[in-house]
């Protein structure tokens, strides 16, 4: 290798001083080769190199040279010390050859051509040339962490100029301990460009056979410099000659380790100084000493002799070289007057000796020199020499001026914060306390809750006013204006600010942090720690404080009226901040000092961010949690190449978020556009936490962070394993809570500082231990949170002990400050990163876009502000998902019901047609028919249930719609589906039984009638014969006389067995007894005390028994109560009203067209239904204990009324169907008489008969048919309307409606007779909707058409069949018509009497009359009153809609607001908008004033309540669950909650009081300020309607 410089490529002389055009393209070719040509003009940016792309998460080796820069960057950003070992795959073929080439001189020239390896220095130079200032800074920083040398002077072959890389190095901060501080154990922490330390430069003159860089590495015992024996180090350098690198040697203060006891900087110029005179002069003027390496020294050597410089010169020659000349050396040395400063390498000296000699000289220099210069000052020298300085660009300079203008004014940090950043200090902390108190009500005392809360609100407003009254300080004005500057300048500004502020507080802080860390180790120093912590927080001033202030300025401005000028001026702040986030700047989420999130500010920033990136706004969130100072920030920085604040001692405060772009090539794997990374403040150990109550803070933070994240990294440093236990407890709680709100987060444990070797052996045991501990903690936590069903850690977390643990070796390889980052650390972190991205790729995010993230965060934080996290968690995403589920479920439920309803219509038709020609069934026995129908419907129900459950299952399997958030409701819904099936089965069975009983009664009646008809017909025929025999014309009167005579005689002959009515009371008593028998003997006893017949004669009056009286007395002045007697009476009244309505419906309706129908008979199924209704209703009001006395007497009362009604119904039925009476009806008689006359006169009856048949038989049948179909259609139609989609929607519309009516009477009706109100409302809504655009007729028409069509078809077919007489014709017709219509057999019988019409004629007329009927019906239906139609029993639409709207029918035990949970039966009830209790006539017991308290505030307090269910005792509201376990009343501390009802109460206070006969409430003053619009808004928000 003779003739080669250190790492100098052979042929380097080609790159001499006289650059020509040919060589300029050399740089371009190389850049092109490296794929960077474009980037020479469009520089690489940070967000570009930090984005996550395929290369970042896969292990593909570099395939070609254009991969090399990325390969290097990827490793460098993860501070991997192997980053410089770069080569692309295609070179590997040369690998084997290299060795031979090393020794084969003749092949020397081939090396140049061999492959196209690239020298690492070229790659580094190229990257620096093609990067912007921020990337350069980042590279320099990471390089120095790896203990690589960094560029000091960067050559640019194209411009032939070099640049001082001052800015690039600005971010490097080093900590060391010089000799002077060894005693005090102090240390120096400095920004290295500002450090005044001697620079020692090493340069080469001509060619040199020694590798300068290698010797330097040996001298400093560190691999600072790339040299020829490194991978690719021997590849010719193409653009990096002239590159001057710098590195630092810094002592640790330990004599045995330190090579030099004072710090020094070492510069290394690549290339021959003859070619790089500028660089050489620069070094001579800035260095304390310059060591010139050479083989061959020219005696004249003007280069050395002409210099005027301060630096000491040292000549380093190699005597072993052939061209070495001692003479020349002597000459030059004498000329320079350097007799001592000569070092030569001889054969006798080995490398070690030589290096030792070198060390002595260097050590001498640094011990004695006064030439110390910081790099910042070198800029002046550079300018003199025409060297560019990277900081000279105008953006950087302006930014610097702006930053200096702010920071130069800072004298004393605490004072400065008070005067210049006043908003986020004490005021913000006070606000925080108020906000939390609003939720927690800790200091409520005996004050009225709502008045207390209004007071807090006023205080808050006052503080906000105070904030906005302060003029924006000079500093903030400057800051905001600088933030508004264009992109690059803004970034420079922020960087300058950060560095300036760091410089200012470093001195103070680093001392404090060190002290803090020391004291942390010792539990004794708690008090001192507290002081230090406080001081740390006071004296730290970072850029985050400016942003915090900005946030507060913004929040204060938002509280101003919308039109306010200063509000408008500040509106754009969130947008700036969103822009910064995109630049990779972190946003402070949680202010760790105040322990609060400025929600308005953060939300608005996130909204703006969403605007900026939409539609690419999908995110995944990674967070980290762990004990303080365990390298969390370092871990994230290493993983993602970012720059969270890192330092020894307490550093991160609160939580910061940062965005990382996801490159297109991995989007398909990760399905997101950004990764959000959240760094958090370290949790304190329990011991430390006790001291300053930060336990609460830690808990809040952990809960929030776990809640936000898709993956939580739990960072555990091995030396902190005891502290670990404390924080795991916090973390487990956080996870448990998340699970309760429907989120099962993923977690990964990272164990730090694990030495590589022991890792595998020990970890097996450790993993097991960890899991045991976690399980134990889960159980404890579950017990504390009353969620005992969580038995082990994996119940709350997705955690696999085998894959969920990562072992990462220590960060430093050796002793800082000279230790590079451990390659093992970087590698392990990289593996971890790959794993994390993989998991993220498979996971379903809970808040997968920025807006949802925002919503999640707000809800989480609201919940966290309550101490009782789970109960207070109300998340609108969850609500949204729940709503969607309900909507779907309603649909399925309706499908289910609809099928059954259709089936019932079919079954009823079948039963009605039983035994008639229309019947399709072969079964002849009614009981058999019912059995077969029952079994048919059971199968049907079973299948429907299966389908229903299947739909539910599929719903939960789908990917979108956030179904996992509502996973915990799944069982509720499944149960509901099952109970729906059971309920339907019961109801269908009883309907079938009722229908059968009625039909049987009819058959009996008809049979009797048929006998009579036959008799009469025979008699009439005989009479006609007789008259004909007389063969004379008879006049009408005579005929009439004859007929009447015959009639009397015939009727006399007929036997009328009169049907005896049965005693309905007996069977009602029977069923009542069965119903009450499970309640025990006392119930029976009570039942026997009174005869059923004697009950129900006077209005039901409830008499309170002892227990309730006691409750009444027990209530004292501070308990708002409702008189329990009145309460129970109200319940009774409600149930009675409902039952009577139901009973009445069983009889004839009032509708006029219903006259055509006959009275129904009583069926036992009816009383069973009534009893079922009573039982259901009795269970609805939970605050009332239902005593058995009450229950029995209520049931008796209702049953008696029902029995009386049914008895009458039964008797009416018998009377109406009494054969004798039927026969003697005048109308019937006239008809018969007319027929007789017609027959006698041989007149054709066909037209008359056809009309009669159409009118009497067909028309009612068609009407019934239409009605039976109409109900379902109406429900279908209505369910599509917004107010009937879910129960929440119905409630919302109803309340909105009330608001617009604005009448207290309406409100009273709504509140006090909710069911009635709801029914009327539904009717009203339906009528309104169906009246629009003759909607009703649109529903009717198709059914009318279809029945007419089938009638016509039947006529057609019947005509074709030859039938002997009309009877057969009609029978044929009925048969053809089949089951679609029910033709009353009774009417048919009447019709057939004396019917001798000509069937052909009949068919002709029949068709005509059917046409007429069609027209008539159409007209009639159009005219018909919609309300009447809806009230029909066979149009079940109202009931169905009612069931849906009223739902479970449960009401809040405190304010009686209706439960709005969907999905039929559910285990826990919930209402969204609780109201002041006074609205339901609750009053203060003694003052008789209406109560203003709202349950959702109450349940957060320690106040007591009493009610029937408490049995005279008193229970704190907080424990309401003990009394009402199936109610969930989330405490809502927010002031806007229930604004709707507050508004109503405030508006109608007096009127309500008058209605209820009590005194008006004391309305909290702020309630009166609520506007109608706000009321509406609150309604919207709580109903989750956007
Ligand atoms: N010896 C050693 N030091 C480490 C390791 N990881 C980080 N450090 C150093 O520990 C100090 C604290 O690191 P940070 O990353 O700020 O720790 P943190 O957990 O974010 O600290 P807080 O945010 O204050 O809780 C820094 O000086 C790191 O260089 C490690 O594995 N071994
Ligand atoms: Mg940190
Ligand atoms: Zn309530
Ligand atoms: Zn409910």
Helix and strand composition category: alpha/beta
Shape: elongated
The total of helices stands at: 62
Share of residues in strands: 5-15%
Instruction: Give the low-pLDDT segments.
Output: 1-24, 91-114, 1111-1119, 1151-1156
Each distinct ligand:
guanosine-5'-triphosphate, magnesium ion, zinc ion
Describe the structure.
The chain is of the alpha/beta class and 1586 residues long. Helices cover 57% and strands 7% of the residues. The chain contains 62 helices and 24 strands. Strand 9, helix 13 and strand 10 form a beta-alpha-beta unit. Helix 16 (394-407) runs antiparallel to helix 20, helix 18 (423-440) crosses helix 23 (543-558) and helix 44 (1124-1146) runs parallel beside helix 46 (1188-1216). The two termini are 78 Å apart. One zinc ion binds at residues 1447-1448, 1450, 1459, 1461, 1466, 1469.
What is this structure's SSE topology?
Layout: H1 21-33, H2 46-50, H3 54-57, H4 68-77, H5 92-103, H6 108-113, H7 120-129, H8 133-145, E1 150-156, E2 161-164, H9 166-169, E3 173-176, E4 188-191, E5 199-205, H10 212-220, E6 244-249, E7 264-272, H11 277-286, E8 289-294, H12 302-305, E9 312-318, H13 326-336, E10 342-345, H14 351-368, H15 375-384, E11 388-389, H16 394-407, H17 413-420, H18 423-440, H19 449-469, H20 474-483, H21 487-520, H22 526-539, H23 543-558, H24 565-569, H25 573-582, E12 587-590, H26 599-613, E13 619-626, H27 632-640, E14 655-661, H28 664-670, E15 674-680, H29 686-692, H30 694-708, E16 711-717, H31 721-740, E17 746-752, H32 756-784, H33 793-796, E18 805-808, H34 823-842, H35 850-865, H36 869-872, H37 876-912, H38 926-957, H39 970-1030, H40 1036-1053, H41 1064-1076, H42 1081-1089, H43 1106-1114, E19 1120-1121, H44 1124-1146, H45 1164-1178, H46 1188-1216, H47 1219-1223, H48 1226-1240, H49 1246-1279, H50 1287-1301, H51 1304-1312, H52 1314-1331, H53 1335-1360, H54 1366-1377, H55 1385-1392, H56 1399-1423, H57 1426-1431, H58 1437-1446, E20 1469-1470, E21 1483-1484, H59 1495-1498, ...
Helix pairs in contact: 10-14, 16-20, 16-21, 18-19, 18-23, 19-23, 21-22, 25-26, 26-35, 27-34, 30-31, 30-35, 31-32, 37-38, 37-39, 38-39, 39-40, 39-45, 39-55, 41-45, 41-46, 42-46, 44-45, 44-46, 45-46, 49-53, 49-55, 49-56, 49-58, 50-62, 51-52, 52-58, 53-54, 53-56, 61-62
The chain binds guanosine-5'-triphosphate, magnesium ion and zinc ion (2 copies).
